[in-house]
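sry for the spam today, last one i promise. struct tokens for design, 146 residues
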């Protein structure tokens, strides 16, 4: 159930959006506040239904991130074609995230990757640590079974 994806090209959002690093584990979050932040630079892929299911699971959609339609402008062609794509946005967030530094792209220069092994202990399995991080950035109440 891996799905398949085909690289379409490089692009940036047609509108500005805030892209913030939301947790100490350097989890990025694109916030649904058009006109704030930067035109976010990224890549466009065509993904089949199975691949989309996998992405939804990775992005914890719809529990944490919500998949929304976003227009992007191709940056790797001379015609600057506009495409309608889907992107994952954090819709239920604490307003103080809007006060954080906004980025135009998310890469390793923003901060060190925090590997899963650094977030795990016998008393705090990874999913509990991840849920604690998510709980700090969203207004949702999270519980986990352990």
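last one done:
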């Amino acid at each position: 159930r891996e799905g398949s994806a085909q690289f379409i090209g490089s692009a940036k959002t047609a509108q500005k959006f805030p892209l913030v690093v939301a947790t100490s584990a350097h989890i990025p979050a694109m916030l649904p506040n058009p006109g704030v932040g930067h035109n976010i630079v990224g890549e466009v892929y065509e993904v089949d239904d199975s691949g989309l299911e996998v992405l939804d699971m990775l992005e914890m959609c719809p529990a944490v991130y919500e998949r929304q339609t976003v227009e992007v402008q191709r940056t790797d062609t001379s015609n600057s074609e506009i495409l309608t794509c889907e992107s994952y946005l954090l819709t239920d967030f604490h307003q103080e995230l809007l006060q954080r530094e906004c980025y135009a792209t998310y890469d390793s220069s923003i901060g060190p990757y925090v590997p899963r092994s650094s977030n795990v202990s016998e008393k705090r399995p990874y999913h509990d640590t991840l849920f604690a991080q998510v709980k700090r950035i969203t207004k949702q109440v999270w519980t986990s079974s352990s």
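The two ends are 27 Å apart (CA to CA). ok im logging off now
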